[in-house]
Each structure stands twice: as C-alpha cells, then as structure tokens.
Amino acid sequence: MMNKKACIIFCSTVFTLNAFFFCAAFDYNKAVDEIAADPLTSYNTVYLGMSKSDFDLDFSMLPDWNFYKNETGLTEKAERETKIEGTTLLEGIKITTAIPAGSAKVIAFDCYFKTDNKKIAKEIYDRAVSTVWSGMEDMPVAQASDFVFWKQKDISIVVSYRYEKDENQYVITIRRFNNRILNQ
Q1: Distance CA 80, CA 64 (A)
Q2: β-strand 106-115 against 169-178: which pairing, if any?
Q3: Cα 64-51-76 angle, rounded to 5 deg
Q4: Any idea what DSSP says for residue 167?
Q5: pLDDT tens for each residue of 153-171
Q6: What is the largest distance, in Å, between two alpha-carbon atoms of the chain?
Q7: What distance in Å separates the CA atoms of residue 71 and residue 148, rounded to the nearest whole number?
Q8: Confidence at residue 11, expressed as pLDDT on a 0 to 100 scale
C-alpha cells in the first residue's frame, strides 16, 4: 500500500505531466471557435482599438505561445504549434498599429493557421467561415471558393484560404480591420 507522501508525489507528477501535454497541444476546432465566435474580437481579449501594450501583456504571459515583440515596428505577433496526424499546425495572431508606440491602437489583426495538410486546412477554413457567418448581422459583400468578405459598420472581416507554394503551406486567415482608419 502506498503511503500518503508517495501518493501525493505520484498525483502531483501525473497532474504536472497532464498540464504539460495539455499546454503543448491545442485543439484547432476550439481555437477556431475562440477566434471566430465573436466577429469583432478574438480569444475574448483581442479587439480593434486595444492598445499594443495590452496585446503585449496578454500574449507575452501565455506559456504555450511564442511572443514576438517589435518595439520599433507597426506589427507584432504570437504563435503556437502542435502536431496533428503527424503534421505540424501553426496558429498565430498578428496585430497592426499606425505607430510603433505601446499606446498605439490596434487597427487590424490577423488570426491564422498554417499547415501542409490540405484536409486539415480545408476543415479549418470551413469551420472559420461558418463560425464567423453565424455571428454576422449581414450577408457577405463578396465571396469565392477561397475567401468570404463581410462589412459590419466600420469593420471588415475577411476569411481566406490560400496555398503558399514557396513554403508548401496552406494558410487560413481571419482578418479584421477598421475601414474608417485604413481608408484615410
């Protein structure tokens, strides 16, 4: 029979390993839902008009994300990856601001997935389109087999699917941008 101390160590080890593997892998269906469920936000925290410093704080602290700070540039990004069916899937988010300062406001952001597996890419694209569509007030203003484009007041949302031959990657992007600011 195990003594109390050995039981605590065993349970602690199992919990730690479970937490490690849970953080190391992510469910892309859940990720798509977190990105696309609300047409105007992603991950319940990223939105147009948020400050660059808030984005930095949010994504620099996440243990399973690689955060790429850029103090002098207009874009920053964070990425994480996992293996699914023997293939690598990269998930990322990139923000764009008009000025490089920490107080600058996000005027556009792209959530994206990259994989060399066409089947997984198509599943992600289809789920992203249907999830965004379910939250939109209006019908798309344009659509084709590889993109759907909506306008909702001053905000545009584009879900796109493309193959990047040079990288041998399928890329699915959900882009949100402020029409009023970007058209000035």
Answers
A1: 6
A2: antiparallel
A3: 50
A4: G
A5: 888 999 999 999 999 999 9
A6: 73
A7: 33
A8: 34
